[in-house]
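Fig. S4 source data, part A: sequence.
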Amino acid sequence: MTIAIVSPARRGTVNGNAVTARRWARLLRSLGHRVRLQEQYDGRSCDALIALHARRSAASAARFHRLYPERPLIVALTGTDLYHDIGRSAAARRSLELATRLVLLQPEGIRELPAHLRRKARAIIQSAAAPPHAVRPSASEDFRVLVLGNLRAVKDPFRAAMAARLLPEDSRITVLHAGRALEPRYEQRAHREMARNPRYRWLGEVSHARAQRLLAASRLLVVSSRSEGGANVVSEALAAGIPVLGSDIGGTRGVLGADYPGLYPTGDTRSLAGLLERAERDRAFYSVLRRWCRHLAPLVRPTQERKAWQRLIAEVHLKAHS
């Protein structure tokens, strides 16, 4: 098949949607399909369209459906569209109605959909490859905690930094944060935070390869988002064997499990600080987190995601020709 993938992320960026679109393109090509990546659907003929983000790709989804109403339209709900837009945006809701299939990045998200649409929803957890070379977290005096994500409101980007301020003086925790500041005010705040918080260091935007190296050399990943469709960084942490501390939101619970012991109430700085201190000082607790995440690692193997897409493409192809 010839498949177009529409992603609203600008080419060359390293945000979640861009990483997801490029990975899906590689995966579908490995299955023998011809794939082109676009920011917007340009009207060229293709056998199927995959649109990331129900609202931001709504015009592309509508155009494809208008031109080729019998061909498969797959809409992937990647985050804010699932937990925010479909309740407020008519364009996002229309994308759901037009879609042949809906892809969610973790199974809990299906509950957010209108009941009549759930039958066409499929959960495909994002995969991640283990680091090419085993890198153990640093055995130095620092207990490195990593935050990976662009600086924007939905990511609650300074929660780990604020939690680190509450730690005891003898704590060895340092917080590294890699991600682009999407507005000048976030860059300014990051610099202010570094000036007054010796435990925090903002690295700015880094390449995906460097992000993987930073992750592999860390003791913990903190995912503090207020909303996520299914964070790719969680999959990468599982693949790398790095435990996660995360805000208690559907996008994180849907991958790690509702009973995962490393979840904290969203936006609760003191609770996150307590988990950070416990992970640093309580070896048994840290071991529980690490074993839990290692147990989940098979969920994010590339072969699993590849099989899921193979089944889905076969399903929509059969439907289109039935």
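Fig. S4 source data, part B ends here. The chain has two domains: 2-126+302-320, 143-300.
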